[in-house]
């Protein structure tokens, strides 16, 4: 057995190296920056936890973090139920199954910056299809470059359009794996459609939904490209999510120390919330 | 509670069946008496699951009618038919406790809570699951899960029929026996019509008072276990029921006497008039004995299975099995076979072609 | 020439799954592992096949220690309960795949596949894919792959469990012939006592991750070494009760019978008596003479045999008799024990007579 174990390590080694280069080393660089001050020229001054304190006390950080949580909460509240609903209404066998699946998968195949650019043009009040329609056909005053509410509605709609498919596909996979006997038994037991959903479909989808929620949480909490391309964080700071703010500090202001500290806090929050989600959603399975 | 009648049922899974081969069910006429314990027995693909789904209302037949106490229920939903069904794999509601699972069919029908409590308790007692009533059903072992599935079928006292679709498939052999016994006991206690679908002859024969044997979409024979065992109406029944199954040997008639491999064979009674076609002699291994005279055979294999010995012999190129008690011959021995006349029958094109002489009514006591 | 296990154990995260097990599995007949689900049959097979690690002990094949040899390098075949075939390959390619891996010549592969397909009646289906086959045919394909390969050991893990009753009977008939002259050690796991008896050979009774008894199948059926072994090897379950021996007789409640043979030499005291259902009969006969009376519960009729459950002793008892017998539920019925067939166990479960 020993020889086999060593062989196994040998095979895992490339992955370990990759992870080290990919994650650990950059992260250590970030840790390094987060406790020092630099003015370029490779000159560093020890700062200890100053940056962390500064970030955690900063109103700007609190506001960005609040916006970030709000964004994630909204898209989860919309995408998860919507995804389940679409999955439930999809056919379970026959000709339309592959058609629906391909249609569903399409938005996810589009690169993120393209999505941002697409929606940006789409929403332009004078020439964008949606912007024009809202302003000139429906007479709604819509301009996301001026109105924070319009900007929020647009980035949320964009994300829902882009990512609900993921929830749909996962929920659908969960649904089709339920044996027919369950539906037949429920019919015989006289269960209502709601009962079928509540006691058969939802419990059987639980595992895939856990994955869907985790993926959507992590993705949306770290989202950058699409809203940046779409609104650039504006109008004002109204759609400046945490990631956008971070890039502003790091690259815009070149405050590497605070940006590094912020990244680490950001990372810690993502990790903590993911862990919380996971523990809460799988706690029943342990009994 | 109701008598269930199947009238001229035919079913095809094709929209435009072209011939008999496209029918999963070819012409079925059956009566299921109220309170009976029935089994529907046959190999996979014989149409028994189709028939079951038609009775439960999960499938509407292409042709024919299903009557419950004379009322046409052919297109009624499972819910309207007041039936219960237990599936091959235990169906339980994972998030509910055992109690909630058992109460579910009653709750859906708006039964008052006090009655629900009482019924659930009674059923739990019968199934011996009272101590797990408040446990989550998801964590139970397969046999207990299947008990809960059965419980949900039995908890309603207004069901017309409880149907079991190979319910012991996922149960361990040593527990199968217990659950089968439990089921039989439940039937004797609640006296409700039960239909048990299976490919396992032991399960069918031990559970049912009346067994319906199916093959290729047709009912081959309906009878009590003893009838099916002792006087199979078709060689398929003889082969399918019994372990090993009935010996079916090629025969010919010379001067009105059946012959197998050149030896005259005495039958249970006279050969039916006009018998022709492919002729075969059917004799169960239980009724093949060894003696000093008889058909000469060569012993191929001897299996001691504890309670008796199964001996496989060859007569020319034909194989014959015999079940023996007492000292068995050794492999390679030459033996002489004797067929018990009262249990030896002639079959023409598969169907029974002898009549019984009235006085020699065969009983099971004769079994070797 | 045999597969020898020397004190092998399996430990998963500190929990012992297989207690020290030593077995010598010979060629030329079936070696049956009989036990309930969870008794460790599959674990033991996986250990012998090199799929699961062995915590301690050695596995020796024909005199060579193969404990540390990779599964791929062992010349073995394994047939599962579930029909495992390569879905994208035809039956021919499925059977041929291990031969191709072994680097056999094309003509030899064709010869071997043809032979295996002939025996298993797969000839007309060689060009089909597994999903076009019935369950029985799929399992025959898996079996053909096992016999075409030149294996030193063939492991069959409940290969018939998922098949229809009659198919099971046919294949069970075929199996011993199939492997008779292959020169491989054949190990067959099953949970059905009758299957073990039909396959013959030698049987290892497995209980709770260890071998309770090992020996010629019919012999250990007749002479179980412990109550546990007798229970594993009995379907329906073996009847048992606590009896008191006093002088030259056994007393079970009001029933008593003479102690004969080995049982006569037992010291006075309490024992457990066990008797198979087919030795408790509804009619008195020369062998079955000792009357026991109990209230009849469930009765079952299987055509050739009828069984009755009745309340007796600490547990319910079962009678299994040839023919049909009229019983009615809830009525007292007298059954007759063939006490010559009784097995006696000390209260710790070890057989004493």
Automatic annotation (TrEMBL), chain A:
It is found in: Cell membrane. This is Carbohydrate ABC transporter membrane protein 1, CUT1 family. It is a multi-pass membrane protein. GO terms for cellular component: plasma membrane. Belongs to the binding-protein-dependent transport system permease family. Keywords: Membrane, Transmembrane, Transmembrane helix, Transport. Residues 65-277 form the ABC transmembrane type-1 domain. The chain crosses the membrane at residues 9-35, 69-88, 95-112, 118-138, 150-173, 260-281. PROSITE patterns: ABC_TM1 (PS50928). Its main location: membrane. Pfam families: BPD_transp_1. CDD domains: TM_PBP2 (cd06261). It comes from the Bacteria. The keyword Acetylation does not apply. GO terms for biological process: transmembrane transport.
TrEMBL record, chain B:
This is Carbohydrate ABC transporter ATP-binding protein, CUT1 family (TC 3.A.1.1.-). Residues 4-241 form the ABC transporter domain. Transmembrane segments: none annotated. InterPro entries: AAA+_ATPase (IPR003593), ABC_transporter-like_ATP-bd (IPR003439), ABC_transpr_FbpC (IPR015853), ABC_transpr_MalK/UgpC-like (IPR047641), Mo/tungstate-bd_C_term_dom (IPR008995), NA-bd_OB-fold (IPR012340), OB_MalK-like (IPR040582), P-loop_NTPase (IPR027417). PROSITE patterns: ABC_TRANSPORTER_2 (PS50893). One of its GO terms (cellular component) is ATP-binding cassette (ABC) transporter complex, substrate-binding subunit-containing. It comes from Cognatishimia maritima. Keywords: ATP-binding, Cell membrane, Membrane, Nucleotide-binding, Transport. Pfam families: ABC_tran, OB_MalK. The keyword Amino-acid biosynthesis does not apply. It comes from the Bacteria. Belongs to the ABC transporter superfamily.
From TrEMBL, chain C:
PROSITE patterns: ABC_TRANSPORTER_2. One of its GO terms (cellular component) is ATP-binding cassette (ABC) transporter complex, substrate-binding subunit-containing. The keyword Methyltransferase does not apply. This is Carbohydrate ABC transporter ATP-binding protein, CUT1 family (TC 3.A.1.1.-). SMART domains: AAA. GO terms for molecular function: ABC-type ferric iron transporter activity; ATP binding; ATP hydrolysis activity. It comes from Cognatishimia maritima. The keyword Cell membrane applies. Gene3D superfamilies: 2.40.50.100, Nucleic acid-binding proteins, P-loop containing nucleotide triphosphate hydrolases. InterPro entries: AAA+_ATPase, ABC_transporter-like_ATP-bd, ABC_transpr_FbpC, ABC_transpr_MalK/UgpC-like, Mo/tungstate-bd_C_term_dom, NA-bd_OB-fold, P-loop_NTPase. Keywords: ATP-binding, Cell membrane, Membrane, Nucleotide-binding, Transport. Belongs to the ABC transporter superfamily. SUPFAM superfamilies: MOP-like (SSF50331), P-loop containing nucleoside triphosphate hydrolases (SSF52540). Residues 3-233 form the ABC transporter domain.
């Amino acid at each position: 057995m020993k020889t086999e174990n060593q062989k196994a390590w040998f095979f895992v080694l490339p992955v370990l190296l990759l992870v080290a280069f990919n994650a650990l080393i950059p992260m250590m660089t970030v840790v390094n920056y987060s406790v020092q001050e630099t003015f370029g020229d490779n000159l560093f001054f020890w700062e200890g936890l100053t940056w962390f304190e500064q970030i955690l006390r900063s109103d700007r950080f609190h506001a960005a973090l609040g916006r970030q949580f709000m964004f994630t909460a909204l898209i989860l509240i919309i995408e998860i139920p919507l995804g389940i609903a679409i999955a439930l209404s999809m056919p379970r066998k026959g000709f339309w199954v592959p058609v629906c699946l391909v249609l569903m998968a399409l938005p996810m195949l589009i690169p993120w910056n393209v999505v941002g650019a697409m929606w940006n043009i789409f929403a332009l009040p004078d020439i964008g299809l949606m912007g024009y329609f809202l302003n000139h056909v429906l007479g709604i005053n819509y301009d996301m470059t001026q109105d924070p509410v319009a900007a929020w509605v647009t980035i949320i709609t964009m994300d829902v359009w882009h990512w609900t498919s993921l929830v749909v596909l996962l929920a659908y996979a969960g649904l089709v794996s339920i044996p027919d006997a369950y539906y037949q038994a429920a019919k015989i037991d006289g269960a209502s459609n709601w009962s079928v959903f509540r006691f058969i479909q939802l419990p059987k989808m639980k595992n895939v939904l856990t994955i869907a929620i985790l993926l959507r949480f992590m993705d949306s909490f770290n989202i950058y490209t699409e809203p940046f391309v779409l609104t650039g964080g504006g109008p004002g700071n109204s759609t400046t999510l945490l990631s956008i703010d971070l890039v502003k500090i790091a690259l815009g202001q070149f405050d590497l120390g605070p940006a590094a500290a912020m990244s680490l806090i950001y990372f810690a929050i993502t990790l903590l919330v993911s862990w919380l989600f996971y523990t809460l959603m799988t706690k029943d399975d342990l009994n | 509670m109701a008598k269930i009648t199947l009238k001229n049922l035919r079913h095809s899974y094709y929209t435009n069946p072209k011939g008999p081969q496209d029918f999963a069910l070819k012409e079925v006429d059956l009566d299921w008496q109220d309170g009976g314990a029935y089994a529907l027995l046959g190999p996979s693909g014989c149409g028994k699951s189709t028939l079951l789904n038609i009775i439960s209302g999960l499938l509407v037949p292409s042709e024919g009618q299903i009557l419950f106490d004379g009322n046409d229920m052919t297109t009624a939903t499972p819910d309207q038919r007041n039936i219960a069904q237990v599936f091959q794999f235990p169906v339980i509601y994972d998030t509910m406790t055992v109690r909630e699972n058992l109460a579910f069919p009653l709750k859906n029908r708006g039964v008052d809570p006090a009655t629900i409590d009482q019924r659930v308790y009674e059923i739990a007692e019968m199934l011996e699951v009272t101590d797990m009533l408040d446990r989550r059903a998801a964590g139970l072992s397969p046999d207990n899960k299947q008990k809960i599935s059965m419980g949900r079928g039995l908890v309603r006292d207004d069901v017309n029929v409880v149907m079991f679709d190979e319910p012991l498939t996922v149960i361990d052999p040593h527990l199968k026996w217990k659950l089968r016994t439990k089921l039989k006991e439940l039937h004797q206690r609640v006296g409700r019509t039960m239909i048990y679908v299976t490919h396992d002859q032991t399960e069918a024969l031990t559970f049912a008072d009346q067994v319906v044997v199916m093959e290729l979409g047709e009912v081959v024979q309906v009878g009590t276990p003893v009838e099916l065992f002792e006087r199979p109406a078709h060689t398929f029944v003889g082969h399918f029921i019994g372990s090993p199954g009935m010996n079916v040997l090629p025969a010919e008639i010379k001067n009105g006497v059946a012959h197998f491999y050149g030896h005259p064979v005495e039958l249970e009674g006279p050969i039916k008039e006009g018998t022709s076609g492919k002729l075969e002699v059917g004799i169960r291994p239980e009724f093949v004995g060894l003696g000093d005279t008889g058909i000469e055979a060569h012993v191929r294999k001897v299996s001691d299975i504890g309670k008796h010995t199964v001996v496989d012999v060859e007569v020319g190129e034909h194989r014959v099995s015999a079940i023996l008690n007492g000292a068995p011959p050794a492999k390679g021995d030459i033996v002489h076979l004797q067929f018990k006349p009262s249990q030896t029958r002639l079959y023409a094109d598969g169907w029974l072609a002898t009549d019984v002489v009235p006085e020699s009514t065969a009983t099971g006591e004769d079994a070797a | 020439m045999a597969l020898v296990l020397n004190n092998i154990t399996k430990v998963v995260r500190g929990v012992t799954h297989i207690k020290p097990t030593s077995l010598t599995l010979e060629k030329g007949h079936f070696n049956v592992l009989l036990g309930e689900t969870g008794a460790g049959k599959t674990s033991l097979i996986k250990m012998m096949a090199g799929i699961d690690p062995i915590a301690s002990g050695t596995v020796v094949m024909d005199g060579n220690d193969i404990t540390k040899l990779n599964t791929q390098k062992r010349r073995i075949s394994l047939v599962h309960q579930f029909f495992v075939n390569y879905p994208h390959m035809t039956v021919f390619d499925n059977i041929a795949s291990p031969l191709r891996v072994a680097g056999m010549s094309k003509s030899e592969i064709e010869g071997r596949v043809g032979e295996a397909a002939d025996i298993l009646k797969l000839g007309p289906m060689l060009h089909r894919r597994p999903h076009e086959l019935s369950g029985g045919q799929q399992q025959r394909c898996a079996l053909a792959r096992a016999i075409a390969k030149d294996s030193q050991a063939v492991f069959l893990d409940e290969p018939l469990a998922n098949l229809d009753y009659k198919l099971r009977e046919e294949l069970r008939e075929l199996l011993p012939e199939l492997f008779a002259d292959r020169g491989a050690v054949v190990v067959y796991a099953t949970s059905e006592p009758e299957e073990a008896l039909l396959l013959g050979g030698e049987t290892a009774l497995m209980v709770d991750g260890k071998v309770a008894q090992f020996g010629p199948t019919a012999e250990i059926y007749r002479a179980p070494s412990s109550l546990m072994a007798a229970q594993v090897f009995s379907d329906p379950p073996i009847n048992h009760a606590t009896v008191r021996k006093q002088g030259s007789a056994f007393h079970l409640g009001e029933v008593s019978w003479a102690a004969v043979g080995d049982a006569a030499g037992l010291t006075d005291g309490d024992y457990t008596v066990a008797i198979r259902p087919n030795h408790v009969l509804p009619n008195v006969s020369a062998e079955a003479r000792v009357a026991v009376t109990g209230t009849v519960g469930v009765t079952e009729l299987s055509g050739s045999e009828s069984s009755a459950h009745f309340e007796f002793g600490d547990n319910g008892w079962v009678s299994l008799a040839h023919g049909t017998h009229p019983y009615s539920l809830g009525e007292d019925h007298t059954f007759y024990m063939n006490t010559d067939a009784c097995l006696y166990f000390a209260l710790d479960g070890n057989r004493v007579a």
